[in-house]
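Page 47, continued from p. 46.
Same chain as before, 122 aa.
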Amino acid sequence: MDANEWKRSVTGGHCPSWCVCRHDDENPETDSIIHESKQSTMELPPLVNGTVYTVSLSASASETFQDQQRRTQLDLAVIDHGGRGQLGDYVPVTSRHQADALADGLQAMAAQIRARRDLLPD
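Result:
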């Protein structure tokens, strides 16, 4: 199988069901095939200085013609709406254990917000 045949075998109808990419510009001889999901986002309230950030979570997977293995992960990022785009880097979540730990941490933070909401006026 040559590189272009391999590309056809991992794209189009062979992409992960969550992939929203077209893959037209990816050269299988030199590029990884990157599968990405639609982002799930949550806009945070504006900072005191007015800066607005959004937390983004998406799935991604990459594979190359050379190794032909698909590696899937979740990508957690913070996006600045002030024009800088994604801030620095992102957090790669590469195992179910990491995903569970992240979800547990976020649930604990949500519980703390709910527990302290009565301190606030209506």
